[in-house]
Amino acid sequence: MSYHLEGRLLEVCNCKVLCPCWIGEDPDFGTCDTIVAWRIDQGLIEGTDVSGLTIAAVAHVPGNILQGNWSAAIFVDDRASAAQEAALLKVYTGQAGGPVADLAQLIGTVVSVQRAPIRFDVQGGHGTLEIGSDYYAELEPYLGATGGKTTLSDTVFSTVPGAPVFVGKSPRYRSKNAALGIDLDIKGHNALQSTFLFDA
Fold first, then answer.
1. Which of 85, 39, 36, 91 is nearest to 61 (CA)?
2. Whole-angstrom Cα distance, residue 93 to residue 194?
3. DSSP string over 119-131
4. Which contacts of 113-116 are long-range, i.e. CB under 8 A and separated by 24 or more positions?
5. Which alpha helices (H) appear in the chain, and where do they start and end?
6. Given CA atoms 100, 136, 17, 28 in this order, what sign does their dihedral have?
């Protein structure tokens, strides 16, 4: 086994609630500007322990998400050692195969790979993500009639293949990346939360 990763996902984008990308439809505004962050609570990549670290992608999706050709800036937790960073990038660039490689192949251009302080907090279904000074998102789940979190499952697209996703919205989403053409400061748009278990 080359990697075993368990953790939590936070995702936000400029689509309305719910982002149509997850069911294979075109983004609400023709393109989708998103931040996807994977917090690894327990993880081992080819013998390197990556537990407690977060890796994130800030991405511009130029059309239907299944067509790929995303442009992305990759951010690695600045607490990672050189070995941990190399291991994480091997998985999240698709070089280690497995379920993460299926997602990584949708990225056509990586505009940058940077280390950054990443704050990833999830409590009671509510989440906050902060990457450096240019990226910030708050996330709140929708609740069902019985008080449970509204979930989405068995979708044609997923950033956490095999896991149900909690549907939510973002009270605040701020993202600025000149290389990607992203400059957002919006409220009330799409947000998703989940857990993941990746083995390869």
1. 36
2. 21
3. EEEEETTEEEEEE
4. 113/73, 113/74, 113/76, 113/89, 114/73, 114/74, 114/75, 114/76, 115/75, 115/76, 115/77, 115/78, 115/80, 115/85, 116/75, 116/76, 116/77, 116/78
5. 82-92, 98-104
6. negative
How far is the first Cα of the chain from the last one, in angstroms, to the nearest whole number? 6
pLDDT, one tens digit per residue, over 145-168 is: 999 989 888 888 888 877 888 999
Contact, 46 vs 84, CB < 8 A? no
> Phi/psi zone of residue 181: left (φ > 0), alpha (ψ -120 to 50 degrees), beta?
left
- Integer Cα distance of 116 and 15 in angstroms: 26
| Nearest to 15, CA basis, from 154, 157, 191 | 191
Residues 38-96 have pLDDT tens digits of 999 999 999 999 999 999 999 999 999 999 999 999 999 999 999 999 999 999 999 99
Does the bond joining 18 to the residue before it have cis omega, within 30 degrees of 0?
yes
Give φ, ψ of 98 to 5 degrees: 75, -165
Q: How far apart are CA 158 and CA 197, in angstroms?
A: 13
Whole-model pTM above 0.85?
yes
> Which tokens go with 106?
């949708």
SS3 198: strand
Q: What is the pLDDT of residue 102?
A: 87
The one-character DSSP state at 67 is: G
